[in-house]
Write a structure and sequence with these properties.
Elements: E1 5-15, E2 20-25, H1 32-35, E3 38-41, E4 47-57, E5 60-65, H2 71-75, E6 81-85, H3 99-102, E7 106-109, E8 114-122, E9 129-133, E10 143-146, E11 152-156, E12 161-164
Parallel strand pairs: 7-12
Antiparallel strand pairs: 1-2, 1-6, 2-5, 3-4, 3-6, 4-5, 7-8, 8-9, 9-10, 11-12
Length: 172
């Protein structure tokens, strides 16, 4: 993945009448908003926006952004995705990966059988599950691979490969 900007939140609505926006976090690290001094809108509206203040409220992040002082100005951001440069992502520990890094990996078994590509990740309460199959392909050949160390034996981001050791019945 070579995207320069990574989504960290989506503006869902204005909050109050002083220009604050209510943001749905798209990150596993919502606390990052309290240390973020700038965010970027990408696409045709690309621009840097400075963050004046961030706080949490009922599972959302409330942001006060510089230059957005009225409800109408905040409304103009509704639906916009807030991003940060890739190099500003929270550093992960060894063996930890961002979801966007996993989607698109080619999946092989330890005996070199190709299963497909990671098409999606289902977030679960106990563990994530990788949806693997041919891109645009047959639903019958889709596999649900639990993101467990006992199953996922290796991830090589440079080679874009995931190796798994399927438990009995997983691929039936």
């Amino acid at each position: 993945m070579t995207e320069r900007y990574i989504a960290i939140g989506k503006v869902v609505a204005p909050h109050g009448n002083k220009g604050e926006v209510k943001v749905y976090p798209l990150t596993d690290f919502p606390s990052r908003f309290t240390g973020t001094r700038r965010v970027y809108l990408t696409g045709p509206d690309y621009r840097e926006i400075l963050v004046d203040k961030a706080r949490f409220h009922k599972g959302f992040v409330l942001l006060k952004l510089e230059g957005y002082d009225t409800i109408n100005q905040a409304e103009s951001l509704r639906g916009k995705v807030l991003t940060v440069p890739r190099e500003e992502l929270v550093k992960l520990g060894p063996g930890e990966y961002y979801l966007f890094e996993v989607v698109g990996l080619e999946v092989y078994t330890v005996d070199n059988r190709w299963l497909g590509t990671v098409k999606d990740v289902i977030r679960g309460p106990a563990n994530d599950v990788y949806v693997v199959g041919p891109i645009g392909g047959d639903k019958e050949k889709e596999y649900l691979i639990p993101a467990l160390k006992s199953v996922v034996k290796g991830i090589d981001l440079k080679e874009k490969v995931m190796t798994i050791d399927p438990i009995p019945g997983l691929l039936d």
